[in-house]
Amino acid sequence: MTLGHGHGRRGVLTLLVVALGMEQASAAACQQGCLRWEDIPPANAPGELVLCLASYDTGPGPLLYAGGYFTSAGGQYTQHVARWDGANWSALPGGGLGTGLNDSVRVFTEYHDPIAGHCLVAGGSFDFTTTNGGTAHSIAKWQGSGWSQFGPPNVWGANGTVESLVANGATLYIGGEFDSVDTTPATNIAQWDGTTWSALGGGVGTAHSYDGVLALAMFDDGQGPALYAGGSFPIAGGLPVRNLARWDGVAWTPVGVPPLDGTNGAISALAVFDDGYGPALYAGGSFTEAGGVSASHVAKWDGSTWSPLGGGLQGNASAWAVFDDGNGPRLHVGGYFFFAGGIPANGVAKWDGSTWSALGAGVGGNHPQVEALCSYGSTPRTRALYAAGQFIVAGALPARHFAAWVACETPVSMFCFGDGTVASCPCGNLGVGDHGCENSASTGGARLSFTGVTSPDSIVLHSMGELPSALSLVFQGDEFISSSVPFGDGLGCIGGNLKRLYVRNAAVGQLDAPTGSEPSITARSAALGDPIAPGETRYYQVYYRDPSSSFCAAPAGSTFNATSGIRISW
Q: Does residue 516 sit in the same domain as residue 400?
């Protein structure tokens, strides 16, 4: 669902691996015992199957949206979609029957419509008259006060089911099981450019069959950002493929070398994640082989080669999410399985780049399955990984289709991600997981990390993924802005008593601060009139120059961007 960047940065990536290791060692090493499933009373949960989750902010802060096939949540009539604020559920007004949507909701994504602005897009199998008099078939957008269709009232959407969505700037891609959008013939995949729907070449799969596009992602394999479509289909644009294909804006191509390109079974989930060796495309589904390599239900494509993820899963994968549980950002997978890499892991597991680990006792019930995962929390301290699907137990606690895996609290934690899990980027320019918003260099966004310890202060901040020689300002604030407001081409998440600690130009897109003889962070803060007492918390971001006025044009964006953020409890 996000943009990646190419290869050729192996030295920088090696430093990232070292930094990740030092982060883990210097953050008072989060112990497994502090990770836990949160007690959300089953009565305060959706009544039936939940299929998708998304964090979306219409002000004053982000809420967690849940969609699926349910008519109630928290005792309220919600009609297939509802909002969770961390404590309570609420219904959405203005749907086909006065609330929610009138049939199942299968997927969400954020999108910056060039005309309507930021919106949450829902796909599924619904069909209703919108609040502005239009008709929405299987796709609709939400901006805080009602659902509406794409385009004027006579533009009505897909004539089948929408199963997957991804946005890339002003372009929204939809995939599923349909043969037309509005009056435009389009086999299982189409795009919206802000004014019209259009097909992508000859489409994917065959119309009026069991073919379908179940997952979409934007990924740069070294040849530039491209759309990847996964699902269950034997052709794309008339070419033989195996359940996965790449669209470069002109033509479809296989992913890998035919006839062993793609996978030997359906792909139901795609994600882009950087495990320290550069962003890669991760696929999950019902397959047992990818690119001719044995891969049990999960596999990794780095732009040239397929590889397995350890011993894989003993069962199908349905969802991916990046989440920092206190040990650094890691890729998490949900689905219907009982083992990951040979260890017991019921329905949900964590991949750290080399090994699998379980999330406590996972989820349980009769055929328990996790259909959706989403990182959500109003503050860095309350951030949790939410799991949803078909289950009645999470850990040892009763749970009705919805549960939260709560992270450890550590002296240092990351926040303000531009990957769509917290808030919308100004012009739909989502970054890869745990980075800031995407920039004009297509690095996947800039990420702020650290090494060192808080006492005595040896903390060094590291920014990676900026433009090659960007002018960069390291800022400290004493307030966290939970609403993550648009700021230039990125998100601003720190405020209060702001201090500009360091100024320098990035080198090969990265910087470290402080360096050499520069004063430590606490010494510099005291010199600027903000002494930091033990136990106090400060928040950090780097704002960096991005002079491309066409990348994220005003008034939505500007000529600067921001990294992800770091919280430090001194």
A: no
Q: pLDDT tens for residues 353-363?
A: 999 999 999 99
426 shares a domain with 552: yes
Mark whether 417 and 546 lie in a shared domain: yes
In a domain, 371, yes or no: yes
Pair 423, 62: CB distance under 8 Å: yes
Rounded to two decimals, the pTM is: 0.77
Q: Bridge partners of 290?
A: 263, 293
For residue 195, give both structure tokens.
């004014």
226 in a structural domain: no
Does residue 147 contact residue 140 with C-beta atoms inside 8 Å? yes
CA atoms within 13 A on the CB side of 179: 6
Among 385, 409, 433, the domain-final residue is 409
Structural domain including 361 reads 34-70+313-409
Number of domains in the chain: 2
| DSSP element (H, E) containing 241 | none
Based on the fold, state whether residues 506 and 363 are members of the same structural domain.
no
The confidence score (pLDDT) of residue 116 equals 78
Residue found under tokens 């495309």: 281
User: Which stretches of 114-160 are assigned E, i.e. beta strand?
Assistant: 117-129, 135-142, 147-148
Element (H, E) at 255: none
Strands 81-84 and 62-69: antiparallel
Helix residue ranges per DSSP H, 9-49: 10-26
Pick the closest to residue 351 from 288, 250, 424, 280 (CA basis).
280
Q: Rounded CA gap, 301 and 402, in Å?
A: 31
436 in any annotated domain? yes
**Do the Cβ atoms of 323 and 407 come closer than 8 Å?**
yes
Q: How far apart are CA 121 and CA 300, in angstroms?
A: 28
CB count within 10 Å of CB 483 equals 17
Q: Which residues pair with 252 in a beta bridge?
A: 247
Distance between CA atoms of residues 70 and 536, nearest Å: 44
Predicted confidence (pLDDT) per residue in 197-215, tens digit: 999 999 999 877 889 999 9
Q: Running DSSP on this structure, what letter comes out for residue 358? A: E
